[in-house]
Amino acid sequence: MYKMKKQNIHSIYFLRIFAMLMVILVHVTGAYAYTLPSGTDAYEKYHFINRIIRIEAGIFIVITGMVFFYNYIKRPLTLSVLKNYYIKRVSYILIPYLVWAIIYELCSYWSGATTFNPKEVLVRIATGESYYQLHFIFLIVQFYLFLPVFVYIAQKWIFFRKYMWVFGIAVEVGYSLLNTAFQLTTFTIFVDSLATFLLGAWLGVYYQDQQGKAFRKSNVVWMICTFGIGTITVLLSYYMYTARTLDLPDITYKLSNLTFMVVGSYTAFLVAEMLAKKFSQRYMDIVKNIAVYSFGFYLLHPLVLGVVSKIIPIEANMTFHFSIVTRYILVVLLCYIIIWTVHRYTPFANLVFGKLPKKAVFLYERKSSVVNR
C-alpha cells in the first residue's frame, strides 16, 4: 500500500504566486488597448509589458501536471484511488467553477452585457465562456478529467515518461495545424496546451533530479533565452495581429509562443526552486499562506478589478501610469483580504475558492495565537 510521505515541493508556492500576480497584471495593464492611442510609444510599451508576462497560463498548467504526477506516478490506479481522485476534483475544481460561472453570468445580465437565455447560458458555462478568465478553468477541468490516462501511460511506457514534454510539443503543434486546416473545434481544448502540461508532468516525475539544477550557472542562459524568445513572441504578436504589417502564417506565432511557454515555465520553475532554498521558514510560511489563495485570486480578480476600475478612472495622460499601479496594488490586496475573510468566517470557502487549509492564517501565524491554541 502507498503510505510513504513524500517531500513537499516548496517551489510550487512561488510558482502559484508568480502565476496569480502575472494574470492580474495582464488584466490590469490591458486597459492600454482601449485607453492609449494606437501606435504611440506608450501604447507599444504597454503592449510589450502586457504580452511579455503572458506565461502565467503556462505556469498554472505546469503546476497542475507537476503536482499530480509527483503524487500519482508511483501509485496503482485502482478503482478506489480513481474514485477518490474524481470526488476531490469535483469538490475543489468543478463546483467552484460552476459557482463563479453563475456569478459572472448574473453580473453580465445585470450590467446589460447579455440577455437571459437559458440555452445560451448553459452553452457558455459548458464551454468556459461565461467570463474571459473562466476558459482557463474549463481547460484545467479537462486536464483533470484525462490526467489518470496520462499517468497510466507514463507508468507503463518508459519512453513516454522520459520524454513527455517532447510528446506534448509534438501533439500540440500537430493539433494546431489540423485545427487551422479543418476547424476541428471552436472552443478551448486541453490538447492546445499539452506541451506545458506534460512539461509539468515530467518535472513531477523527475523532480528529485531537476531540483538540484536550481543553482547552476547555466540558469542565466535560461533566463536570457526566456526574455529573448518572449520578445520575439511579443513582436510577432504586435506586427502580425495589432499593427498588421507582417504577413506570416499563424503557425509562426504559434511555434514562437509555444517555445516561450515551455522555456519560460521551466525557467520559472528553476527560479522558484532557487527562492525556496533561500527563504527562511518564517518567509516561506508567508509565501505559502498567500499561495494557497492563488486559485481564488484567479476566480475573483475580474470582479474586484471591475469595482476598482470604477473607483480609479483611467485616462490617456500622465496619470495613466499611476492609475495602473494603484489599480494593481488594490486588486491584489482586496482579493487577498476578501478570500481570507471568506475562509476565516464562513464554512463554505472550499466550495467558492477551491481547496483551502483548515485554518485561515493572515500572512503568518502570530506567536500569541500559537500559544493560545
UniProtKB/TrEMBL annotation:
It comes from the Bacteria. Residues 10-340 form the Acyltransferase domain. It is a multi-pass membrane protein. The chain crosses the membrane at residues 12-32, 52-73, 94-112, 132-154, 163-181, 187-207, 219-241, 253-272, 292-312, 318-339. Its main location: membrane. Keywords: Acyltransferase, Cell membrane, Membrane, Transferase, Transmembrane, Transmembrane helix. It is found in: Cell membrane. One of its GO terms (molecular function) is O-acetyltransferase activity. GO terms for biological process: enterobacterial common antigen biosynthetic process. The keyword Ribonucleoprotein does not apply. One of its GO terms (cellular component) is plasma membrane. InterPro entries: Acyl_transf_3_dom. Pfam families: Acyl_transf_3 (PF01757). Belongs to the acyltransferase 3 family. This is Acyltransferase. It comes from Priestia endophytica.
